Amino acid sequence: MIRLFITLPLLLLLGACGAAVEYGGIRHSELASHPDCNPVQTTPATTDGKDYFIVTSRLPDCRAGAIKLTNHRSDKVRFGRFAPPVKLKPAKGKARTIVPTAFQPEQEWWSGLRDAANLRQGRVLLYVHGYRETVDSSSKDTAQIAALTNFDGPVIQYSWPSQGRLLSYAVDETNMYWDERNFRHFLQKLATQDWVKEIVIVSHSLGARLVIPAVEYVDSNSSNADSSNISNIILAAPDVDRQDFERDIIEEVLSARRVNNDRRITVYASIKDKALALSRSLHGYPRLGSPYCFDPFEAADLKAKGLPERCYAAKGRYTEEPSKSGFTIVDTSDVSRGQSGHSDFLRSAAACKDFVATINGQRDNVPGRSATHLPYVFRLMSAGKKSEQEDTSACKWVSLP
């Protein structure tokens, strides 16, 4: 009962309070009317020092001489470069964080991405953030992923208009669905470039619900029926209906033909993920990123066998098994970090180490993984409590100067 009284107000708050989106006191067209928001051409100096690529459907505000990405929807997708967030400390007033950003004409952006990819054998990493993110926080995470993995190719952030607020889950979910068309068209164009040899996609939380349908779309609409350059898909704490994933998604995205062409999905899941526990309460059914046992009889059977009461998405069934393994679940419950347990892949030393191996394509005999009763599920076991400093160092957290 105590848990019910604690959870119910949170559910009501997430579903109702804070959900309204205020238009603001200035026309949105005025926010984005400055040439910096709609460049005809760029010079090398414009993007100098901006190491990462960004694609965004957020409405920009270019009035103050520096581009600020708001939490509103834009009428078009924009392309640009960005640098990790920096904190500005004026002589008077409060410090504020900015993400140095410069937009480019779309064709120039694609040319720059091509040049960067060609220097690194055609590998591209695409990061799609989740719920409750601002462009500051998602840019910080993108920079951390690049530093942590030492990825040998260009890194792209796709930024959709999440509100960055605890009480705006319903708005974020609405905006995520609104943005599906934008994202799938972008992913299709990326996947059909002949210079893109491998796409590594990392999604977090609600971002998985953008990624998975887009991959399905590219698979079904590409002249290359296998879309085999979308090869390594990583779903960190995915806020996806587990049964929907089992029934529909594995069959399409991980068909035997695509798995044999090196397509694979790795899911990071934790029973300690409070955000996904709340999402389960909102949606009624378990999430892919949480090994919660919806079926009490399945939980009882596991307990009777002396196994942890953790239930995972089922592996796809094939008429003829692929020659490779296409689906892996990594359970981070025992090494979970942070108050919410929702970002272990960037917060826990053990999970970060595993994440790096996954980004780099390692599949078998990954150090630190312990086998379970399911051949495609592995647990990361704690070798003793790590200090926050050890996690910070191992995960290469990006601190603001």
UniProtKB/TrEMBL annotation:
Top-level taxonomic group: Bacteria
GO function term, MF aspect, one: hydrolase activity
Pfam families associated with the record: DUF900
PROSITE patterns xrefs: PROKAR_LIPOPROTEIN (PS51257)
Cited InterPro entries: AB_hydrolase_fold, DUF900_hydrolase
Keyword entries, A-Z: Hydrolase
Protein name: Alpha/beta hydrolase
Lineage: Bacteria, Pseudomonadati, Pseudomonadota, Alphaproteobacteria, Sphingomonadales
